[in-house]
Amino acid sequence: MNVKFQDTQANTTKQLNSSKQPSHGKPSQTFSVAEAVVKILEDMGVQYAFGVSGGAIAPVWVALHQSPIQVLHFRHEAGAAFAAIEAHFASDRPVVVFTTTGPGITNALTGLLAARWEGAKVILVSASTSAPQRGRWACQETSTYTMPSTGIFTSGQIFHYATTLESCDELPEVSQRLALGLGQPGGFVAHISIPTNIQTSSLETSLPRVTLCHAMATASKEIIAECVQLLSEGPFAIWIGFGARDAAEEIRELAERTGSAVMCSPRGKGIFPEDHPQFVGITGFGGHESVLRYMDQQRPRHILVLGTRLGEFTSFWNPAMIPKQSFLHVDIDPKVPGTAYPSVETLAIHSDVRLFVKAVLKDFPENLSLSTTLSLPRPVHNNVVHSRTCDLVLPNILMNVIQQVIVEGSDALVIAEGGNSFAWAINLLQFAKPGRFRASTGFSAMGHTSTGIVGAAIARQGKAVGIVGDGAMLMLNEVNTAVAYQIPAVWIVLNDGRYNMCEQGMMYVGFKDIDAMIPQADFVKIAQGMGADGIRVEREYDIQAALEKAIATNSPFVVDVVIDPTQIAPTQSRNKSLISQGANNILR
Q1: What would the pLDDT profile of 375-393 be if each residue is shown by its tens digit?
Q2: I need a surface site. Which of 194, 262, 272, 371 has the fewest CB within 10 A?
Q3: Contacts of 71 (CB under 8 A, 6+ apart)
Q4: Residue 11's CB: how many other CB atoms inside 10 A?
Q5: Please, what is the average pLDDT of the chain?
C-alpha cells in the first residue's frame, strides 16, 4: 500500500451553550446526582431523550421529565436507539437514550452499534445494581457478577467512552469526557451507567462547568497546493459520501468550475443534485450502470474522494472503480483513507470536507477547464412500464409515484430500510438537495428505519417517510410511540410476504428452495389497533391517492402496499460481492 498521510492543523470553531454554563462555585441548591447528570446533558445541547423506563432508572427518568429535555417513552430500547440516531442527524444535536438494568441495556446495543457505524452522537444513560446488592442475585442484576463489563461498560468498539458512575466526585471527569467527545468532529457514542443508589445521592461537589467546543481538522496550505496541482493535471472525478453533506454548495462549485464527473455513495444521495448533467450516478449497492460506463470509457487520472469510507456497499471494492493514478481521499477520520483499496496509490488528507473544498476553490485557477470532450453517461432512474400480467403493485411503479408525490411534492425526509426497500429507493429515487434522504448501509439493521423515522420526524418538526419491508415492520416498529406523541411519521410498507432480499439473493448465488416466507400481515389493521390510520394499496392506480393522503395528514400514517414479489430488485452487485467472498453454492 502506498498511502501518504498528511499532517493537519486544528481549527477551533464556535463554543456552544456558553450562556447556559452553571457557576464553578457552590451550588445555590442541592442537586441529586440524577439531576446533575441531566443538567450536564442539557447544557451540552441535548433536547431529546428516548427510552424505556424501569425501577432502577426511575430517578434519572424523573429528572429528565423535570428538565427542559423532551422525553419520549418507546416500546423497545432498540427502537429508541435507532430513533436517537435519526434525531441526531435531523437536528445536529446529541440525543440521549435511557434504559433500565439488564435487558434494557442489552436490548439497546443493536441500535447503539448502528449509531457507532453511522457516526451519530448518542449518549446512553443506564442503571446498574447498587454496590451493596451486587452478587446477591438482585432483580435484573447488572454488575460484573452477571454481565460482561468489557465493551458494555468500558470504552471500546461499541462506545467511544463508557463508565460506571460510582460517586458524585466523578462527575467533573465524566462531564469533561463527554464535552471532549461531543466536541470532536464525527460521531461519538457514550455510555454512563449509574447505580440506583448513586442516582439519588446528593451532589457534594459543585456542578461542573460544561465547555463544549468544536475543533475541525484542516489540511495545511502545502497539502492544498499539492492537491490543486494533481487535480489540475486533467479531468478528474469527485466521489462523495455522507460525510460531505455539509459541503454541498462548495462541491457543486468545484464540479462546475472544473467540469468534473460526480458520483456518490448510497448514503450520499442528494448532496450533489442527481438531475445535474455532471452527475454520473450512484455507486455500489443499488447503484447505476452509468458509473461503470464512465469508469470504463473515461477513467480519470485522479478521483477526489470526499467523506466516504469506500466500504463494500459504496464500492464493493470493485477494481473497475480504481483511477489511473491515485485517490485523493479526504476524511475527518484519519483511519479511513487507504483502507478500502490498500494497494492503490492514495493521498490521505485528514480534514473537514467543507473546509478542504473551500481551500481548494480558493487556490484553483479560475480559467482552467478540465472537462472532457466526451459526454458524461447519465443514470437511468425509472422506465415505467405497467404490467398487466400481475394484479399486484410493481415496486418500480410505487417508486415512481413516491418520486412525484413525496420527493418532488413535499419537503419530507425519506429514509429507506435495509433490504430490497433501499435497493429500490437508492436506484430509482432522485434527490436534488442534501438532507432529504437517509439510509443505513453500514450496520444496516432491520428495524432501523421503521423506528428511526419517529426520531427524525420529531427532531425536524416535520414529515419523515420510511420506505420499509414487511419483515422489518414486523420485527420492530414504533407506530404506537408516534401515536402517543402525535408525530407525523409515515410508513410505506413493501408487503410481499417474505424476506425478499434474502430469497432473491439465495437464488442468485445458487441456493434453491430456501424458506424466506412470512405470513402476510395487514399493516393497516395493525396500525389501527395502535391508534394510527392507514390505507392498504393493492392496485397501481390507488397509489397516488394513498400517498397524497399520507403526506397531507398530521398524524402517524401507514401505507400498506401489496407488491409483486417476483420483481428482481437492483441488488446484483451485492450478490456478486457475496459470490466473490465464497457465498455461492458449489454443490449445485
Answers
A1: 999 998 766 555 555 689 9
A2: 371
A3: 48, 49, 50, 61, 64, 65
A4: 13
A5: 89
pLDDT score of 576: 65
| CA-wise closest residue to 460 among 109, 66, 184, 87 | 87
- Calpha distance 349→60 (Å, rounded): 42
Joined together, the cell numbers standing for residue 97 give 437514550
Q: Can you name the residues that pair with 189 across neighbouring β-strands?
A: 122
What order of strands is seen across the sheet that includes strand 188-195?
Answer: 70-73, 48-51, 95-99, 121-128, 188-195, 161-164
Pick from 446, 404, 403, 405: which is nearest to 425 by CA? 403
Look at residues 203, 109, 202 and name the one whose alpha carbon lies nearest to residue 148: 109
Query: How many whole angstroms separate alpha carbon 89 and alpha carbon 434?
Result: 12
Domain 219-363 CATH (choose: 3.40.50.1220, 3.30.230.10, 3.40.50.460, 3.40.50.720): 3.40.50.1220
Classify residue 285 by its DSSP letter: T
Beta bridge partners of 3: 346
* Residue 22, pLDDT score: 42
Q: Domain limits of the chain?
A: 22-210, 219-363, 395-580
Residue 391 is predicted with a pLDDT of 82
Question: What is the distance between the alpha carbons of residues 357 and 398, in angstroms, rounded to a whole number?
Answer: 37
* Integer Cα distance of 314 and 266 in angstroms: 7
Could you read off the pLDDT of 393-441 as tens digits, one per residue? 999 999 999 999 999 999 999 999 988 899 999 999 999 999 999 999 8
Burial of 185 (0-12, 13-18, 19+ CB in 10 A): middle
Rounded to an integer, what distance in angstroms lies between the CA atom of residue 134 and that of residue 121?
Answer: 31
Q: Where are the alpha helices (DSSP H) in 121-259?
A: 171-183, 196-199, 221-231, 248-258
Task: State the Cα angle at 373 between 372 and 378, rounded to 5°.
Answer: 75
SS3 385: coil
**DSSP line for 290-359:** HHHHHHHHH--SEEEEES----HHHHTT-GGG--SSEEEEEESSTTSTTSSSTTS-EEEEES-HHHHHHH
Residues 6+ apart with CB under 8 A from 90: 413, 455, 456, 459, 460, 464
Q: State which CATH number among 3.40.50.1010, 3.40.50.2300, 3.40.50.970, 3.30.300.130 fits the domain covering 395-580.
A: 3.40.50.970
Phi-psi region of 286 (alpha: psi -120 to 50; beta: other; left: phi over 0): left
Name the β-bridge partners of 560: 493, 536
Q: How far apart are CA 339 and CA 572, in angstroms?
A: 24
pLDDT at 327: 98
The helix-helix angle for 33-43 and 171-183 (nearest 10°) equals 20
The total number of residues shown for the chain amounts to 588
What dotted CATH number matches 22-210?
3.40.50.970
271 vs 99, 275, 321, 438, 584, CA distance in Å? Answer: 35, 11, 20, 11, 36
CA atoms within 13 A on the CB side of 346: 25
Residues of the chain with pLDDT under 50: 1, 5, 7, 10-27, 586-588
